[in-house]
Amino acid sequence: MSQSWTGSGGRPGAEASMASVFLGDVIEFAVGELLRDGADVASALPEVLARLGVPLDCRCVLALRQEVAQPLTVIAAHPAEVVADAALLTELNELTVAHRGTARAGSSFSEPLRWAQPLPGQPDGDVQLSVLMAYSPPADDHRLCTIALVSEEGVWTPDAHAASRAIAGIVAGQLRQAAGQVAATERDALTSALFDSAPHAIVVCGPDRRIMTLNPAAQRLLGYLDSELIGQEIAETLLPEPRRADFRAGMQSYLMAGDRQVAASRMRSPVLLADGSQQRVELALVPVTVGGVVHFCTFIHDISELELALAALAWTEERFRALAKAAPVAIVQMDAEGLCAFANDRWSELTGMTAQEAIGAGWASALHPDDATRIEREWAVAAARGTELRTSCRLVTVDGSEIQADALAIPLRDSDGEPAGFVGAVTGVSAGQDAGAPDQDSAAR
Q: Which 3 state secondary structure label does DSSP give 341?
């Protein structure tokens, strides 16, 4: 696969919040690339699908369409080679038939998949896959766009369903417009799926900065009805005074010079809620020209939970590093694959290796070649059992000298109880001790 879609693991609170933010980013990108006048859906859609797969750890993502009484056909896919997989397309068609009510309603569902063909670069094996299928609103019994996401995880959140339906809706609207088969009112009805389904708040205003519409997610976040905000100046109504000038300047920059960099800019700010309180959010401004008129889609992401999760994580890691720095023993932190993520000063003193040199697989170069195979075997047993490892080994310093060392590796687990790596403590001991074999405590316990 051309892009790595693996998660980092071990930080579920922050990761769940980050995944939600990333889905919002995907919808922003889809709006900017697909909804504007003259957008080339065929060229832009593969990148939209690729980005949609990232926060959901997808194996592949497809956009499909279906004419009346015809099977689903692929509009675009990521990775592209999945288009040739007849078994997958057959099963997606079968699922659409089995869930015809969901498809006709423009809704979404998720199901386990029988399909298990490994893609190029993917490992073989009996991996249970599942699919999320999201449909655009119906139009004359045509399924204008179906988004299918295939993942090994199979954990499809409401945000994943909503984001997939939103993208299906906007793609359908643009395809109909490109084919010259849709009036303005029908296009509006199709693309409204983007705003109604999007899991994140969207507020749309015209070039005069006055609010034209807001989606249900924005109403829930801000506490306003749409009738209370339509016609109001967006910055004056939603932002505290110190933030208004920067927000207006971004809009003006695009109107004066067509500066699309405004679409990539983000602002973290409190937003004013209907009850008089404030909520910490991230604002992203995406300009879209529709019918020759510039509209500004303001995406509002609630980042309060994310900031709390990241702050707690940063505090925990800072405390760990402070303790490790003060510790009289060498300390290394490993991930679940045995790659080093952190090494303290004492490790550098003991081996002569800098902390940066130890990161990744570099730490293993400090092991004596005659001990490396045994340590790798003991490590594998401990990792499989999730137990601590006590052993002895020889370290080779950068100047070539040998140090006999005792090592203790303690397993780490994430909040779901899954292995997340090890913290290892290494102590240099007397050179007179037998350097070739572990002591009686050397075992994965």
A: strand
Q: How far apart are CA 204 and CA 195, in angstroms?
A: 10
pLDDT digits (tens, 9 = 90+) for 215-258: 888 999 999 988 899 999 999 999 999 888 888 888 888 777 76
Helix/strand/coil for 4: coil
Query: Taking the C-alpha atoms of 357, 363, 364 and 367 in order, what is their torsion angle to the nearest 10 degrees?
Result: 100
pTM above 0.70, yes or no: no
Nearest partner of 13 among 300, 313, 280, 279, judged by Cα: 313
DSSP assignments along 352-418, one per residue:
S--HHHHTBTGGGGGB-HHHHHHHHHHHHHHHHHT--EEEEEEEE-TTS-EEEEEEEEEEEE-TTS-
Which token pair is 69? 């009484």
CA distance 48 to 40: 12
Give the integer Cα–Cα distance in Å for 97 and 111.
13
Q: Cα angle at 436 between 375 and 372, to 5 degrees?
A: 25
User: If phi over 0 gives left and psi between -120 and 50 gives alpha, with beta otherwise, what is residue 9?
Assistant: left
Taking each helix axis from N to C end, the angle separating 41-53 and 12-30, rounded to the nearest 10 degrees, works out to 180
Whether the bond into 46 is cis, omega within 30 of 0? no
List the structure tokens of 174: 């643009």
CA distance 219 to 222: 5
Q: Which residues of 377-391 are buried (b: 16+ CB within 10 A; e: fewer)?
A: ebbeebbeeeebbbb
Write 262-268 long-range contacts (CB < 8 A, 24+): 262/287, 263/28, 263/32, 263/287, 267/243, 268/303
